[in-house]
Amino acid sequence: MKYLILGAGPAGLTFANMLLEHGEKDFLVLERNPEAGGLCRSTEVDGSPFDIGGGHFLDVKDPGVTSFMFRFLPEDEWDRYERDSRIDLYGDIIGSPIEANIWQLPEDKQKRYLDAIECAGCNTGKDMPARFTEWIEWKLGKAIAEDYMLPYNRKMFGEDLDSLGTYWLEKLPNVSYEETKMSCVNKKAYGTQPGHARFMYPKKYGYGEAFLRMAGALGENIRYNEKVTSIDYENRIVNGIYSADNIVVTIPWNSVDKHIGLPDKLYKNLYDLKYSSIVTEYDPEMLDTKAHWIYYPDPGKSYHRILVRHNFCPGSKGYWTETNLARYDEAGAQKKGKSYFVNDYAYPLNTIGKQEKVKEFLDFTATRNIIGLGRWGQWQHFNSDVVMRLAMDLAGKMLV
Predict the structure, then answer these.
(1) 194 occurs within a structural domain
(2) What is the pLDDT of residues 109-142, one digit of tens each?
(3) Based on the domain organization, do 244 and 330 belong to the same domain?
(4) C-alpha distances in angstroms, 91 versus 189, 318, 321?
(5) Rg for the chain, CA atoms, rounded
(6) What confidence score (pLDDT) does residue 178 get?
(7) Residues near 86 by beta carbon (within 8 Å), at least 6 away in sequence
């Protein structure tokens, strides 16, 4: 075939549908699961949608992506929301991001954070440190680091935070003492909202419905229950059966059992790539909050965030938690009859040296017309809208 696409998540489905829309039908999508959607799959729990891969929403910042999505799930089947995300700071509930909402804390706690921000290395001219834990304090101040960023990241990514690089944190703003002080005086947030400041969610379904419809549009060009077990890089053959002029890989590279024709150095680099696994669990309790999701840095709670389902799924109840698999009591959940889902590949970890290793690997595969795409194909923590944009752009280049 001309194109073989590995994985039917947002990246693979978008790329495949772009091919189809341009009249290209000589392609096949392989998906290991019995249905499409990847981390954005949804199911039904207690009569309402449940996104098994955690909280996924359609960010509306890219009109091209939303327009593409509306071809499958029309605009009138979505609700629009202004993001309401919060942090449970050991009992004090404030808005997120923390640096913009310190003003919501009691005055004595505001002073503690302000004093720490004033002394932060980025505000006093100290050299930027290389270690993750020291960098967080340098960037945000000791109080935010100790109370929120460090415990939250340990819960989400694991205890060894200094194995992470700092290159991915550059997008965090310097926390200005003067601006933070003014926000406390004026009792008003400053700065810009992070991702999903405005988002959409289906009115009657989970987020995964959009990707089921995208898969449905592919007809016989998608094959389910087909796990990728081998890739032959020299001959562009997958599982010893499927041969293609171009292979687009959207699955985790190191989930493949056998790599044929891959140089030893790149093989080692591939298995140096780290990731975290998460578990999502349903709780039927109705919470007295208008928040869409809440972050929990408290190490005493196993989960690091909750998604308040009844605030973005009309007519539903309860919420779901997101917990690092290493912190999750699976036996206890089974004993209590909890509804939960394990996601082995959830977040690529931004470990030291990852960028260089990924680039070297993808540069090599590209010379074989084997292209990495999306969160796992490029090993980057991309949201679904970013992944879809990357897929649309790649298809545009390859179809020229």
Answers:
(1) no
(2) 999 999 999 999 988 999 989 899 999 999 999 9
(3) yes
(4) 20, 20, 18
(5) 22
(6) 86
(7) 93, 94, 95, 96, 289, 291, 293, 294, 295
